[in-house]
Amino acid sequence: MATKGKVYDTxxxxxRKTSVARVYATAGTGKVVINKRDLRSYFxxxxxxxxxxxxxxxxKLKDRYDWVINxxxxxxxxxxxxxxxxxxxxxxxxxxxxxxxxxxxxxLTRDSRKVERQKSGMRGARARYxxxxx
Length: 134
Fold this sequence. Notes:
This protein is α+β, with helices and mostly antiparallel strands and 134 residues long. The protein has a single domain, classed as 2-Layer Sandwich (Ribosomal Protein S5, domain 2), CATH 3.30.230. It has helices spanning 39-42, 46-59, 76-94, 99-105; strands at 2-3, 6-7, 10-16, 19-27, 32-34, 37-38, 65-72. It has a five-stranded mixed sheet with strand order 3-4-7-5-6. Helix 2 packs parallel to helix 3 (76-94). The radius of gyration is 18 Å and the shape is elongated. The protein starts with a strand and ends in a 29-residue tail after the last helix.
């Protein structure tokens, strides 16, 4: 896998809500770069950092691979979920024997929930305006 002259071991895509993460993995020291920024500077919330690192912590592979990630769309929560799915898929491609652990933890399942659209004449997707008989 090559992107702009760089060679990567694997490439996968992760999605959540409206976020799409392209994840490139290569053997290295555990460096994570998201949209050309360091992981800590990209995500401010500890929960987002935790979600991104979950597959690596579970399998104790934090210092084994370098990650270059491009993520677009949505907010920080959706982006961190998309990155987690992308990393889990990349780990599976690098080592298919990890499938059982990743699947048991639920990291290979794509969360398909999206925001329901607002219907016309209503306050929200399902909330209605108060009905008045008179």
